[in-house]
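User:
Hi there, any thoughts?
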Amino acid sequence: MSLKQRISRSVDKAFIALDDLAGPMTLRSQTGDPTYDATSGTMTKNERTFTVQAIFDKYETDRVDGTVIQKEDRLILVKPQTDLRPKVGDNITDAEGIMYEIMDVESITAYDEVFLWELQARK
């Protein structure tokens, strides 16, 4: 088994082991600028909706600076899936229906493959 396969398998096992913490969340990702319908006078968002496996966590106290990372920000680990590329400004909704805006996105990668998305999210 290659190292790439081992990393992928380890991420899968971690999400299974944390099943009570990891759950399905809804991530809405903007795919382009909103479009204006002149007939109805409304704006339509161009977005894709993904159901993702995610783990919500709080930031360690020493990482909270009150500016870039605020006290109520959440660290969200998201299991990657095909075509998912979270961006700043996208939204993620937790299991309780609370929506967070994505403030920062980091990818955990190896061998040019994303094994985990790390999102900073804010209410």
Remarks:
- Residues 3-28+47-122 form a domain with the Thrombin, subunit H fold (CATH 2.40.10.270).
